[in-house]
Amino acid sequence: MAEGSDDIQALIALIARLPGLGPRSARRIVLHLIRKRNGQMTQLAQLLDSVANASRECLTCGNITDRDICAICSDPARANGEICVVQDVADLWALERGHAFRGRYHVLGGTLSALDEIGPEDLGIPGLIDRIASEGVREVILALNATVDGQTTAHYIADALESSEVVVTGLAQGVPIGGELDYLDDGTISAALRARRSL
Amino acid sequence: MAEGSDDIQALIALIARLPGLGPRSARRIVLHLIRKRNGQMTQLAQLLDSVANASRECLTCGNITDRDICAICSDPARANGEICVVQDVADLWALERGHAFRGRYHVLGGTLSALDEIGPEDLGIPGLIDRIASEGVREVILALNATVDGQTTAHYIADALESSEVVVTGLAQGVPIGGELDYLDDGTISAALRARRSL
Lengths: 199, 199
Known about the structure:
The structure is a homodimer of 199-residue chains. With 199 residues, the first copy, chain A, is of the alpha/beta class. Among the domains of chain A are: 6-54, Helicase, Ruva Protein, domain 3, CATH 1.10.8; 81-170, Dna Topoisomerase Vi A Subunit, Chain: A, domain 2. Helices cover 41% and strands 11% of the residues of chain A. The first copy, chain A, contains 7 helices and 6 strands, in the order αααβββαβαβαβα. Chain A has a 4-stranded parallel β-sheet with strand order 4-3-5-6. In chain A, strands 1-2 form a two-stranded antiparallel sheet. In chain A, helix 1 crosses helix 2 (23-35). The longest helix of chain A is centred in the N-terminal third of the chain and has 15 residues, at 40-54. The radius of gyration of chain A is 22 Å and the shape is globular. The termini of chain A are far apart. The model of chain A has no long low-confidence stretch (mean pLDDT 90). The interface between A and B is large, with 56 and 56 residues. Chains A, B: It holds the Pfam family RecR_ZnF. Chains A, B: Keywords: DNA damage, DNA recombination, DNA repair, Metal-binding, Zinc, Zinc-finger. Chains A, B: May play a role in DNA repair. It seems to be involved in an RecBC-independent recombinational process of DNA repair. It may act with RecF and RecO.
């Protein structure tokens, strides 16, 4: 038993399974934490426990929250007429960090996938259509990933909303801010050229 | 508040400060854990708490353990005549994973450093010298990093033991297994050439 105790080995194995980590980085993190076992490590254990117990999905939009309705859905200062549809909570967080959108969200929790047998019901798309009617939504922004699955899902939702009066939009595609043309893939360059605008 | 709740934000900030991680990887890890909040996340909180409470330094060698004397120091199957001196516990773990050494260890917990005012007493070097006398040690292997600080510390310990009868050795320096000469630094190539051996 090289690593101190059974619990330490179990801890390293558990941390090594987190996304982006492996045995080497897990050992480094565990040793760092053991060195700070009276401060950072105890604090981390307590926070993990309280977040694990308090976290749930917002009943309206699917965002992660510690109450029934999340802070965004219950914020009276945000516009009711716009819903931004995202694949998962990480995308919602990314949009919020941009501070560019002040409407409501809807988290699908995945994309349509015939292979994985994920259909519209699994993603709460009927619930989204109900929300659009009941909340008087004027615009649905499909902020889905520019992948095949993301775009398939976007097309499905756009088709389902075709008969309604709501405006369906998607994120602009083009050159990222600070991006160098030389390093961009051909698809992005063609899309940016097709969507060129007058200056 | 983009990330769900104050506790979630505090958790992300705490995880982002761990070695090798940052805000982006911390957010990814926290979302992954919240998705598994009834299994992996609760288990991680419990293990962190129990390791934080149980871990301490072995009174003999300084290894991390959950008892007074670590499993290596109290293992009767290991040789008493050899002490391997390492800079910190990560190095001890690395040597144990190699399964090549079956003696005892001594963890310095750092290297001598005039700049940081770390002297021999801070590293427990007097304690090491006492151990060498009381445990009838015949060989001290200085498995210290091949850095300036590591080698300064190695020289200091070798000098301090010069008057005793103990044999002081260091790890061989040369080409790592699987290493390609083309990618090695000049210092390593020169050292490997100077220490060449007949085949």
